[in-house]
Amino acid sequence: MPDFEFEARIGGRVAGVDEVGRGPLAGPVTAAAVVLDPRAIPEGLDDSKKLSVRKREAVLDAILGSADVSVAHASVREIEELNILRASHLAMERAVAGLRLRPDHALIDGTMLPLGLSVPATPIVRGDARSLSIAAASIVAKICRDRIMVDLAQQHPGYGWETNMGYPAKNHRLALENLGVTPHHRRTFKPVHNILYQEKIVSS
């Protein structure tokens, strides 16, 4: 279970930062930054991957009611222009910058620190399973991105985004072959690129 040890050791306003959406073939990458109130840590807070949809939603309400929260994105175009790692870091930088009050320190899920952070930071491997602040950020980021993909699924039916969230599930890959590429697909990702390349060969 994640705990508050990292935050307590550092002291001050510590933001947990996590992102979701590196692996999908479509949609933005989304990051969240959360500064928890040590006196009001939501009950049941855990790594988002360990929680059911209903539990995540309940914990999200508690996070939003007690913490300083910021959500930010990097668009499909930015993913294509920068690469997915840099776009993920850009979303993280934007999330930290969007907090109501500037944090004293940021805890970043992963092994690398975004270069454009405006505050001191520490990377934590498997941070969403070790830090309550990062776990909170993982929940916020996942729910926010999932909601975006459900909305996009209504605009572009057939790809299954309401359930696969843009990841390369079988139904998504089949839809890509049968329905083609949308403006929300990441054209630099191999499965999407291959379909575009095949279309180019056929058309020429």
Structure, described:
It is built from eight helices and five strands, in the order αββαβααββαααα. The relative contact order is 0.21. With 204 residues, the chain is α/β, with parallel strands linked by helices. The radius of gyration is 18 Å and the shape is globular. α2 crosses α5 and α3 packs across α4. It has a five-stranded mixed beta sheet with strand order 3-2-1-4-5, with helices on both faces.
Q: List low-pLDDT spans.
A: none
Q: Got a strand count?
A: 5
Shape field? globular
Q: Helical region count?
A: 8
Strand order of the largest sheet: 3-2-1-4-5
Rg value: 18 Å
What is the CA–CA distance across the termini? 56 Å
- How many strands, what sense, and barrel or not for the largest sheet? 5 strands, mixed
Instruction: Give the fraction of residues assigned to helices.
Output: 40-55%
Mean pLDDT: 95
Order of helices and strands: HEEHEHHEEHHHH
Strand content range = 5-15%
* Derived structural class: alpha/beta
